């Protein structure tokens, strides 16, 4: 499997604070890559750099697309989504609250529909080619509504949805843009074990059926350890470990970052179990 | 050369007045992130209050100027502060949690209301006042142009400087100032450590109004004529000054005020007087397009 | 419904008393001591009775307000204040009112009470409805606070006037051209500023509006300065003039006695058609990707960016289309009046149009109609109280914002629905 994303020497500074310090890693297609680390480690900052919301001070962010390479650090945020087809969700959920669930999903297909509507002209006169495209777009929306279990809420306002549904809607909306890479910022936040298990299936489905690369920021280890193919660990803006789940969970640097200095002490059994990804779920 | 220096003096004086008003805009923006569209009309009301105060005192026979001016100043500051407080309570506080545009629209409504309220209550005609503070120094006399520095101009600049210094000390050194700055940075956290956020915000409005009232009295004395509409123009220009200096920054407000005063004066003197208001609007537009953070402001990074 | 408890009474009285006291303090200088411009200079003529009345009114008003607040159910939902049964049934009623209203508008000129005065007011109201609908695209749908909308109104009017006067083209050519000019100016004015945040955008558009007005006022050679442009040709009924002579005129063609009402009625139907066009285009656009993008932009711009939507282009289209309708309305205004001057295009106009959009309910087409009828029609009927009109405007803007920040009739129906099983 080829590299989907190559990050080289990414550095991001905010005034005197270095949020990300010379981080390099790669993520592969058809894999779920998780970025984990204590709070403040710079994970969301990485996402913001990848999706064009921040401009990094140093570094290359290469998205590989067949023979093309998109240099994400040079692209504006909406161009990253449009051309490089990197979709994302947000830590604090950003839906369109006054619009319905279905409308949220249609907005995601804006560029394609805009083209089909001939920049609105064809749409205004109701040309068939536009109407067909719109029907297709609704079809895609229905598909993702089905996969995220939101079909029966299609006409409700996004703001009326419960928290868990909103998170899934955000993912459905991101998938409606037909992305090449999906970046999820703490999708399991606030979910109970049943919901995180459903999330796991959804993400695995996305990886296996749609064959894209998924980048995941998460704190919930039951999700991370269960579904990740590859994990990158950040602490204080630096990469301290990278590898498979087994490698990472036994890495002393990782343990130190999460739990503190004293390596001589044995891990409390519950914490050790947590790290093993054996928290009760399902 | 003499002409230039005269314009310089005039510009600095005008700039001081704008600066005092600009502080009100910048304080309110700094603490609740909204543009108090009605602030210019608070300034206008203060000018009327000052006018009425002067007339009343003269009417009852008190004419010793320094006493009259000081009494009117203090009275005006107090009453204008009350107006500022009431405006905040009625039009802005209820909208604190609402969407971004709501307080702005409410502010525009309030501005319209205040303008028309004064227009109805006091009449639509301009209100002239005979010059009260006259005389000054002749700085230079080259024969065909004399450079005058009036006492009033000195008073305005000195008063403004002292108020600015006092105010900066207030903000940086006192507990009150710390509370203001805390609320500016993080309102939720400030509330959690026990700061009465409502009161702090009200205070920002009150202080801004009080400073504007000083400007109101100065304006009245300097120009000798006021009407219900001066708030609109002065407000736009003072807001331009606040934006130019960097909205949210106190020294920025003063600096911006000075610059706008100078630009307006020099523009009228050397180009054309008809388009002088356009100069202010154009600067506003240009600054917002090319450098929205202003000269001394901090660039805001929006959390994604 | 809880009954007012007696222990609530003292705090209520105290609160109302304090409110009255504050009113007293504020009212004494401005209201109680008016400055009168007498020949010897300014005089003060105290009028304490007005102050007393005012304080009493505020005291009582606050008392009533307090009673109302304390009697209301504590669980009144603040998330959807518009879902009370009364307003819901109003919503249902509104669905019928639209076709009835349009029908009424169509047959208005045939009504017995349709005098010249009534028709004039109707034309005025519909002009503001059209302006409100145009601004609604910018403010209500796209969420861009435009405080300088009057600029496009002015550009439309002046473009039409200059085209008609200098080139002698007919109304039907000048009108769309003026709209095009307005659209271009919308793009030109919008392009540099649309990446600014909400409040900044508002101030910049205000600045633009004022700059345009001052230019119109001072560029004497081109725009006539304060004198304006006069002698703007009136519209004709497809070539038939509305004149008194016996040949080639509207009345002679249709074999009617000449009446000045003919032209007025024609103008009425003209503005009605323009307004309905504005409405039709808006409703269609809302269902198209561009309209959804506008609303999405209003809801959350960052989310839009993350979906690959170019915010600047999207905002520009809203701005330009809104400007076009403003310009068309301006052309109509020019041809109706026969004379235009910068005085008609002040910031107050922008504020009035904005008030109509906001008070009606941002994004609500019916709300704009309602607000326009109430505000414009209402104040026309009370001409004597002219100077209180803007005062009431301002007070209403504040009042409605505080009471219902989303406007009176703000309710959004999704533009598209699909069938769901067991919908909640």
Write a concise keyword list for the protein shown above.
heterotrimer, A: alpha/beta, Rossmann fold, 6-stranded mixed beta sheet, 40% helix, globular, C: mainly alpha
Structural notes for this entry:
The complex is a heterotrimer of chains A (282), B (304) and C (424). Chain A is an alpha/beta fold. Chain A has helices at 43-50, 77-84, 101-108, 110-116, 121-124, 128-147, 163-175, 193-210, 221-227, 245-249, 252-259, 269-275; strands at 3-14, 17-28, 32-36, 58-65, 68-71, 86-88, 181-185, 213-217, 230-235, 238-243. In chain A, the strands form 2 sheets. A 6-stranded mixed beta sheet of chain A has the order 6-7-8-3-9-10, sandwiched between helices. A 4-stranded antiparallel beta sheet of chain A has the order 2-1-4-5, covered by helices on one side. The longest helix of chain A is centred in the middle third of the chain and has 20 residues, at 128-147. In chain A, 48% of the residues are buried. Chain B has helices spanning 2-32, 39-59, 65-92, 101-122, 151-173, 175-185, 187-192, 197-223, 230-245, 250-270, 276-290, and strands at residues 127-128, 136-141, 146-150, 225-226. The longest helix of chain B has 31 residues, at 2-32. The mean pLDDT of chain B is 87. Chain B has 11 helices and 4 strands, in the order ααααβββααααβααα. Chain B has one domain. With 304 residues, chain B is mainly alpha-helical. Chain C has 424 residues and is an all-alpha fold. In chain C, 68% of the residues lie in helices and 3% in strands. In chain C, α1 (9-32) runs antiparallel to α2 (48-71), α6 packs antiparallel against α13 and α10 crosses α11 (289-299). In chain C, the strands form 2 sheets. A two-stranded antiparallel sheet of chain C has the order 1-2. Chain C has a two-stranded antiparallel ribbon with strand order 3-4. Chains B and C meet through α2, α3, α4, β1 and α9 of B and α1, β1, β2, α7 and α14 of C.
Radius of gyration based on Cα positions of chain C: 25 Å
Give the fraction of residues assigned to helices of chain A. 40-55%
Number of helices of chain A: 12
Radius of gyration of chain A over alpha carbons? 20 Å
Low-confidence region ranges of chain A: none
Oligomeric state, counting identical vs distinct chains: heterotrimer
The CATH architecture classification of the largest domain in chain A is 3-Layer(aba) Sandwich
Q: Give the CATH level 1 class of the largest domain in chain A.
A: Alpha Beta
Instruction: State the total count of DSSP E strands of chain A.
Output: 10
**How many structurally independent domains of chain C?**
2
Strand order of the largest sheet of chain A: 6-7-8-3-9-10
Order of helices and strands of chain A: EEEHEEHEHHHHHEHEHEEHHH
Helix and strand sequence of chain C: HEEHHHHHHHEHHHHHEHHH
Mean pLDDT of chain A: 88
* Gap from first CA to last CA of chain C: 29 Å
Q: Which structural class should the secondary elements of chain A be placed in?
A: alpha/beta
CATH topology of the largest domain in chain C: ABC transporter involved in vitamin B12 uptake, BtuC
Number of strands of chain C: 4
Strand content of chain A: 15-25%
Overall CATH architecture of the largest domain in chain C: Orthogonal Bundle
Biggest interface reads:
B-C, 67 and 56 residues
